[in-house]
Amino acid sequence: MTAFVRNQWYVAAYAREVGREPLGRTLLDEPILLYRTEDGRPVALSDRCVHRRYPLSQAPSRLVGDRIQCGYHGFTYGTDGVCTYVPGQQRIPRTARLTAYPVVEQDSFVWVWIGDGEPGGLLPPRAPWLDSPEYTVVSGMEPIDCDYGLLVDNLLDLSHETYLHGGYIGTPEVAETPITTTVDEEAGVVHVSRHMDDAECPPFYANSTGIQGRITRWQDIEYHAPCLYLLHSRVAPVGSPPPNADGTDPHAFHVEVVYAITPSTGRHTYDFWAVARDFALDDREVTEFLHKNNHTVVMQDVDALNVLQKALDTEKPGYQELSINIDTGGLAARRLLARMAR
Amino acid sequence: MTAFVRNQWYVAAYAREVGREPLGRTLLDEPILLYRTEDGRPVALSDRCVHRRYPLSQAPSRLVGDRIQCGYHGFTYGTDGVCTYVPGQQRIPRTARLTAYPVVEQDSFVWVWIGDGEPGGLLPPRAPWLDSPEYTVVSGMEPIDCDYGLLVDNLLDLSHETYLHGGYIGTPEVAETPITTTVDEEAGVVHVSRHMDDAECPPFYANSTGIQGRITRWQDIEYHAPCLYLLHSRVAPVGSPPPNADGTDPHAFHVEVVYAITPSTGRHTYDFWAVARDFALDDREVTEFLHKNNHTVVMQDVDALNVLQKALDTEKPGYQELSINIDTGGLAARRLLARMAR
Amino acid sequence: MTAFVRNQWYVAAYAREVGREPLGRTLLDEPILLYRTEDGRPVALSDRCVHRRYPLSQAPSRLVGDRIQCGYHGFTYGTDGVCTYVPGQQRIPRTARLTAYPVVEQDSFVWVWIGDGEPGGLLPPRAPWLDSPEYTVVSGMEPIDCDYGLLVDNLLDLSHETYLHGGYIGTPEVAETPITTTVDEEAGVVHVSRHMDDAECPPFYANSTGIQGRITRWQDIEYHAPCLYLLHSRVAPVGSPPPNADGTDPHAFHVEVVYAITPSTGRHTYDFWAVARDFALDDREVTEFLHKNNHTVVMQDVDALNVLQKALDTEKPGYQELSINIDTGGLAARRLLARMAR
């Protein structure tokens, strides 16, 4: 099992998922209750009543104003986790208090700090495209019955697009083109780049951009361990001018593919996925196409990782993997996660 | 896990469930076969054939007269558990014998003695309302996927009626009114009383008694550990006379709520429930209403305890509960069960 | 759990099941991929890609000519298990190689050698009736959620036909008639014979042979441990002449009942069953009747063994069985398997 990295920000939900209905999620084996106050502030508390451990996210537990009331015996807690009511007596025990988790709402996500103590000045990494007016976004979340390390492996090695996602985002060039991998140990970021100069244009891009013919296709991954994965994808017809020196790039199409990889338990993972594009912003057909196409791609990964986890569950201890050049990104990520977990 | 208390009587089934079809139940991890002889006597035997351990309650096992014939190879046993037939030979091994359990049919239940040796003169505790002509009864059984201790906790602390059973049997006064708890260590009985002088009348009582307006509501629990739970419930309009000195109580409505709590395995429990009333005896609408209403209440408990058990299954060792005044009954019951289990 | 016997041939599939779609089976805890080359040769390889352990039998893994391509990252292997392609680089690691299992196609089965090293000259045992023009065959395979030892027990002791298969193949005489058991330790074969001189004719034989009235019924079992079970069944009207000295037997009906018992995991077993007859060869009604009837019989065993395994799973360690004369065949098989496993 891939060790959990504590003292980090994790995506617990999309902002749109957190409202006036209690929502329960398990992050790094910790059960967490999410809801929003009447004035719109997200709250994250331990999802177990201190009395008999009933989940506060489970009906008939419910919000009473900004407080959460346990559905079993009525213990009630404020947004700071402090108990404000117990049944049958006036005195409230001093120890009746839920863990209140630091929360940040940013880039369409609700981030929760999992760790001992406070994040201090540390903020979650950014994915600004997800709520920028200059991008149109499709997104979703799929739970996977696997160790989160399998999803990290999957996303760091995109050669699998050719085989698992052929006919969607994969073409022969993805598997054929060598990658360059660098690791920023201090920042905790793995970079993997694959630049294809002359490649087939897969349906995902052909149908959304309207490009006919072959493309230049760049895949630049930034994995901010442990939770945030960014894939800067640049697509342009072969022969288009490169980006300008000032960073502008008017002749290419850009897609920012974002994954938040949140370990739930040792074999359950939340796979938050989003695709932000800087073209055809108001074209609903393109939006619907990309939503459906990328959901299909995500489900191909989900199915494969569910199968893979079950296969690994039956392996004898000490089984072997064989790694090659395409795995340098994934192996770098594993090393980084192992170091951060210590 | 709450330790099992052996050398006790347990309810294995309602009398009406035991007939000429073999019935299998597991009590305290012991698989038990129940059936009734041709002249109506209930029988309880070990539910495993001595030959290859096939369950005698499973088709095509079947009764042949008063004997049970294994559906796999035909080993046949009498009501005393002694084997009377084996295939392919005349000689029957002397050790071919099932455990025969002491059985008592009483108060609409089939009670089985689980323990070493015989019960001697010890009889099961009584719930005489359940087959008395002076009461009308609705009843049922629901299996719960939980430690039986969770059901004991649930029933000993009725403050949960206000939250889990609001709109059925709960009103604010149940959670608000303090309880008195006493324990008869010798008899193995926990008493918990809550007398509400001026309380809302919940739908359960309003619709069955016809009372309009507020009520005096008494809840007097007798928990005969480990299996039998009695709730003597007295309801009368506020201002009605109290019971007479001779015990008669003509101005009040009485409901005897009976639960038999039978541990099946460490995380499965049989929840036998019954509601006996001394009013509207022949009113079928009231009977149907109480059956449906109480079944709903029981299912609210079942759902909550299934959820709670799953939550507890993921707790780290050494997790904490916080107990308050309402828990004195439940904690007394836990101590009593622990003592009896030793 | 019954110990696995390695260094043996096991039936992995019917020949008809192995084709140009990858087929995954687990034998003795080893995941195995089966397919057929373009020129019809069956292939058995380890069913885990050496790279990240993805199952090669799982879509989108697929055959490319005679090679199997992993559906995750495209690693490709020849029929000898040697890797011929990896993504992103020309050099193929020398250790990239799947285990290739010895395979024999014989008597309608695909046999796979599970063990260390090669079978040498050792060939699988024979069941020649299954692809002989002198017999008509019905067959199928059912997985059972049980230790394979339970299926061996079942088949070696046919007294269960009377009870579990009454109305199909069982009659009172099967349970009543004593057996003779012999063991050929060197060949690893257990023989169990039961000759009934004057028995009811069960529907299985009455409807297929047309015999009316009582029969002579011989059951001669050869269990070639660990995998192949043969039941030579001879049925004739009472009073018919015995077989001739030269082995011919024109006055009787012969059915060769074949089971291949292949352990999958410690509690999953493949139950390959076949019924070959030497009469009514072209009668489709008889074929359909025997297929349906025997499938029902097999499912009665499957249901009973699933029930039995679940019952055994809850037994306390050191539970007892009681064996009698009918068990001599099963006990001999257990001893033989235990010796072979060592």
| Morphology of chain A | globular
State the name of the first-level CATH class of the largest domain in chain A: Alpha Beta
Order of helices and strands of chain A: EEEEEEEEEEEHHHEEHEEEEHH
What fraction of the residues of chain A are assigned to beta strands by DSSP? 25-35%
**Mean pLDDT level of chain A:** 97
CATH superfamily of the largest domain in chain A, called what? Naphthalene 1,2-dioxygenase Alpha Subunit, Chain A, domain 1
The largest β sheet of chain A comes out as: 7 strands, antiparallel
How many runs of DSSP E, i.e. beta strands of chain A? 17
Which structural class do you get from the secondary structure elements of chain A?
Answer: alpha+beta
The number of distinct helices of chain A, counting runs of at least 4 residues, comes to 6
Strand order of the largest sheet of chain A: 11-17-16-15-14-13-12
Quaternary status? homotrimer
**Low-confidence runs of at least 5 consecutive residues of chain A:** none
